[in-house]
Amino acid sequence: MGGLEPRPTVWPSLPFKGEGRLNLRLIRIDIPLEEALTMPIHNVVRLRASASLFADDSSGVRFSAFMPKYLAAHTAFHVLDDERLVLYFRQNAGKGTTFTVRHLNVTDSWTKQAKLFLAWAASKLAFWIDPILLYEKNGRHYEESGRVVFERLVDEGCPNVRFVIDRGVANELDVDPRYRKRFLYQHTFAHYVRFFRCQTFLGTETAAHALELRCQNLFVQRKLKSRRSTHVFLQHGVMYMISLDSPQRTSFRRTNVKGRFLVVVSSHKEAQHFIDSADFSEEELIVCGLPKFDRSFMNDDADKILVMPTWRIWEFAEMREHPEKAAYTKMVAKIVSSIPESLRDKVVVAPHPLFDQATFAGSPGKAAVGSYDELLRGVRLLITDYSSIAFDAFYRGANVVFWWEEKDECMARYGEGTHLMIDEQSAFGPVCYSPDELEAAVAELYGKPQSREYAERFAEIVEHRDGHNTDRLLKELADKGVLNK
Fold it and tell me: Measured between alpha carbons, how far apart are the two ends of the chain, in Å?
């Protein structure tokens, strides 16, 4: 369970007489709080006899013998107000038991749970409501493909399109009133009703982000698993880095998404990756390019060196509790120290948004990122490991340097079979394994135009750079009957 093997308390069995008798035992599992705080978000509970000689000689624990179907059941929440965390055991999709350690959700409160129930009931009567919902990550962003497609649909007179967004985030945006009036503010009653009524979702993340990620509510979970909905996955970044057959990327497998599911991809090469590794059919893939790239550009005076590796799910708890000890923090420090001293004043450190940026308060040029689109406009060179932001930066005209010192170790941590889809022969930038290699690559590429070789490699993964990705997407959606409402 999350690498932790607590010793359970086992009470004496209650035997039943007869041949092949059944023994019933009560088992209590105690997890020390300080150890629970260092565990990953999801931890599947399995039991293994202490006398077993085999590490894999274990069995799952059914959450309840009285729940033959997935009912999103869970134990009482243990809430840590100071850390804004909640801990609980829950029924997973396989009817087993998972111990979850996550940030506190808005929908965890009993008032929001009641509002969700009332909204679900109201949605059964509000038959005239038939929205198309667009959204971006956690309902807290308005800058990627979701925004581009939403504004285009509003401009074309689509009457029932809405964009799900946090009210506080929306209040900080400079948005034309004709778009703002179509905002659907998160966690309002209107938001919940339209979520339950919606049959067409278009978003840069899974449909759970259209309400709230990891919402522990039966009606929400049933809606997300409905086979009557159409989902158009716009992608927040080109998905041609970490292989989709990784055990950590099961949420992107066709077998794990219900209903009609269409995926926007940037090339036939990326489309084949979805077919081979995620079991999608050719008809479910739209090769048009990401709509957000239609508005992507680099400022003429761009001069920043951006350091931004992707996050590491196995370090999430450590980054939360002891960030100064995490390998991610040490990696970023090593990258920064390897940049030529004459260019240090150009450095901007922007860790992955799932990691607390306060960790890097002492780094040169630490970025308080409000908009990654605006940040990238000022970037002349990007240093990353295998983040999809590499595609965004290169598309705009920046050079990219890949830091792969810990690549093999990280791929192993993602799970058996995980690999990168690019290698040294297909990477659209130099690959570095040591500080000396990184220093030389930065010195060579900073301020230089992209080479033809790297541009040709990039074009194999991102085919379209003509600014018409949104045109192609909307035509495909119209041809497939998705937007004919």
Answer: 47
Quick check: 41 and 2 in contact, CB under 8 A? no
Tell me if 306 sits within 8 A of 381, measured CB to CB: yes
Kind of pairing between the strands at 285-287 and 379-384? unpaired
Kindly give the pairing relationship between strand 23-24 and strand 285-287: unpaired
Q: State the virtual CA torsion across 92, 94, 98, 103 in degrees, nearest 10.
A: -30
What tokens appear for 266 in the block? 């940037």
Q: Which amino acid is present at 427?
A: A
Question: What contacts 110, CB < 8 A, 6 or more positions away?
Answer: none
Domain residue limits, the chain? 25-103, 106-293+466-478, 302-459
Cα–Cα nearest to 93, from 291, 250, 235: 250
Phi-psi region of 341 (alpha: psi -120 to 50; beta: other; left: phi over 0): alpha
Inter-residue contact 296 to 392 (CB < 8 Å): yes
By residue count, the chain amounts to 485
Between CA 139 and CA 68 the distance in angstroms is: 33
**CATH architecture, range 302-459:** 3-Layer(aba) Sandwich (3.40)
Condensed to tens digits (0 to 9), the pLDDT of residues 316-325 reads: 777 777 778 8
The model's pTM: 0.88
Q: Which CATH class is domain 106-293+466-478?
A: alpha beta
pLDDT in tens, 305-316: 999 998 887 777
Amino acid 471 reads D
Any idea which residue has 């989902």 for tokens? 231
One fold for both 106-293+466-478 and 302-459? yes
